[in-house]
Design a protein that fits this description.
This protein is mainly α. The protein has 6 helices and no strands. The chain is flat.
């Protein structure tokens, strides 16, 4: 950008804000680097290299990669339905991994939603709201029935 525009016209305060934003994204998503191998197994257990899988899952991955019926079921496209179909005794570790991965994003959303509701209800104008009342507000706001 400095080459394209006059260097003196660039507002360098944006540079600092962009650096902070980049660092914030790196901090927030650094956890995904740790669970990437497990997410890769979840998204496609048929293409993952067995050597890169955790020891507890390697035999199950070998078995599932050699099962043509399960491969066909996987290719139908519904990932969660695929994991419902696999035998829970034969592929115990893969199912546990699938449950963890599938719940990862939904539970994060619920936590963030609840925190936002808490912040909206516990303001300086509503500082007399007791903990019991706030708990009731959160319970109603996050229940499935309040969204009907």
């Amino acid at each position: 950008m400095a080459e394209k525009f006059n260097k003196t016209a660039i507002n360098f305060s944006y540079v600092e804000k962009l650096d902070i934003l980049i660092q914030s994204f790196q901090d927030r998503f650094s956890e995904f680097k740790k669970v990437k191998p497990l997410l890769d197994i979840f998204s496609n257990p048929f293409t993952i290299s067995v050597e890169n899988a955790p020891d507890s899952m390697q035999l199950e991955i070998i078995d599932i990669q050699n099962d043509q019926d399960l491969r066909n079921k996987f290719n139908e496209g519904d990932l969660l339905n695929f994991y419902r179909c696999i035998d829970k005794n034969t592929y115990k570790e893969l199912r546990i991994n699938a449950l963890k991965c599938a719940s990862l994003f939904g539970s994060t959303y619920i936590c963030e939603q609840t925190f936002s509701i808490l912040n909206n209800n516990k303001t300086k104008h509503r500082n007399r709201l007791s903990n019991e009342s706030l708990e009731a507000v959160l319970r109603v706001a996050t229940s499935k029935f309040s969204q009907i």
